[in-house]
Amino acid sequence: MNTPDERSSRPYVFRGEGTDRWQALLWNFGRVFFQFIAILLFHVRISGRENVPTKGAALLVTNHQSMLDPWLIGIALKRQIHYMARESLFRGGIIQYLFERTNAFPIRRGRADTTAIRESLNRLEKGYLVNIFPEATRTADGSIGPVAAGVAVIVRRARVPVIPVAVEGAFEAWPRGRRLPRPRPIRIRYGKPIDITELESLSADDIAIRIRRELVALQRQLGSSHAAKSEMRIESDIQAGRKRLVVARELSE
Q: What value does the mean pLDDT take over residues 89-104?
């Protein structure tokens, strides 16, 4: 991938996993360093790591509570993770260089980004572990919102294990609108892979609902106070979708 960010001073360059030994050293040093920070400040507790394969391609789908989420799920595993990150972060300089070194690649938010989807599929084809935040933005209240349409495209085309991941407590630690994080307990749970053959038989909307239900189930396992609202949002969105179908049918008659 070598696609320029329209607002960046230079194009994106892949400098991540497998490029050289310094990249591996940077990743491993960062993982150990941030493990220490996470335990010290947030008393992070992690469960379900055995559900993530130790090698081969897999797709992590994670709820998005705060800006802490990418490195929180990255420190929990011995494998490197590849991430989508909003394109506004790729503006050149040392920040872009570090993103490139740590496997992040840009995505345009607010519209279907076929370049980012292709890049996700390309990295999965190479056997990497790719994470996406299917809500496409951080939660405003801790609950889990709608899943972006591009997620179903990646799931169907990649044909790899789809592993739901729940982050809980990061919203309380660093909610939207707060300048800096504050110490709060954070828990992370990696769920069991969703059967890919089951997902392939579903419509795009049903794939989105299935993923949301898995994430809510993990929230409940973590004792989240946001799980009930997450479930209510799913039911509300299902009802809204049914109403749209009825209206569409009436207009076509």
A: 93
